[in-house]
Amino acid sequence: MSWELLLWLLALCALILSLVQLLRFLRADADLTLLWAEWQGRRPEWELTDMVVWVTGASSGIGEELALQLSKLGGSLVLSARRAQELERVKRRCLENSNLKEKDILVLPLDLTDTSSHEAATKAVLQEFGKIDILVNNGGRSQRSLVLETNLDVFKELINLNYLGTVSLTKCVLPHMVERKQGKIVTVNSVAGIASVALSSGYCASKHALRGFFNALQGELMKYPGITFCNVYPGPVQSDIVKNALTEELTKPNKGMDQSYKMPTSRCVRLMLISMANDLKEVWISDHPVLLGAYLWQYMPTWALWLTSRLGKKRIQNFENGLDPDLPYKFWKTKKD
Q: Can you tell me the distance from the alpha carbon of 231 to that of 214, in angstroms, rounded to the nearest whole number?
């Protein structure tokens, strides 16, 4: 075989590989590393059994679904959120859909903004189960309001809840993991922690802060290879996050919108479990065009900012007209499906 023919074959292989990767990307609902782990990586059913997992924000949405799927893997669960009645409901669902017993699930009401209570809550978990293998920082709220119309107390609440509350609880759990030299901290961030979108300025700020904090923390704990971090960045997912979003005033409720066109919560959580099982450091979970936007923000920020600014104008128009700000995304999904 001549060198010229060999080079042509190599070029053809490279072209075919590029086309395959492009096709995978166009059909993707997560970053390609995560999808590769789903195909060839370790299974949650192998790696996440018989563990003590503490989930915050467990009363609805991603947290509730995560509790349900974790319960089927065995082990012990700690369910935390502000609403005790909803936590009891989630506990009953877990018991009905798994082989767990009453003693395997601890309902532990927790207010992330009350940082003075986090140390006692951590001690309660350790007293009940003796260890914490995985902490899932999932608690938080979103925002739907314009900066010029939003009270400063709303921004304070978002930072206290989404950022400082998560940092506080992590700091309470970390000494236990350092003592054992093992553990896993999973933080549910958002694509808004990579990009920035109109009407969610305070929410974006809190999520960007989380990204910076946990990336720095990973560097500080390099001498403890048994302690791993997984930062999860979901896009639009079916949940109550929009319904529970803060508005321009703390006491003003947000208007609920149809969420059925967004990614099913079960799919998002399954990908999260795969990320945890494979010790992936950062994962993006979303379909297009949001996933494409995340890649643009990561690798072409100037173009991403230009595009986001123009899309933001349409979001604001919809918002001011009482429509769903995510209407363009909904149309995209409906047309695609």
A: 8
- Assign residue 335 a region (left: φ > 0; alpha: ψ between -120 and 50; beta: otherwise): alpha
The reply to whether omega before 289 is within 30° of 0 (cis) is: yes
Q: Is the dihedral of CA 279, 67, 333, 20 positive or negative?
A: positive
To the query of whether residue 203 is one of the catalytic residues in this protein, the response is: yes
Candidates 203, 233, 261, 329; catalytic one: 203
Identify each DSSP E strand in the chain by its residue range. 52-56, 76-80, 105-107, 134-137, 183-188, 227-234, 282-285
Asked if residues 125 and 78 have their Cβ atoms less than 8 Å apart, the reply is yes
- Identify each DSSP E strand in 40-123 by its residue range: 52-56, 76-80, 105-107
Residue 31, token pair as written in the block: 């970053």
The pLDDT score that the predictor gives to residue 3 is 75
Report which of 228, 236, 292 is spatially closest to residue 264, judged by C-alpha positions: 236
pLDDT digits (tens, 9 = 90+) for 191-245: 999 998 999 999 999 999 999 999 999 999 999 999 999 999 999 999 988 889 9
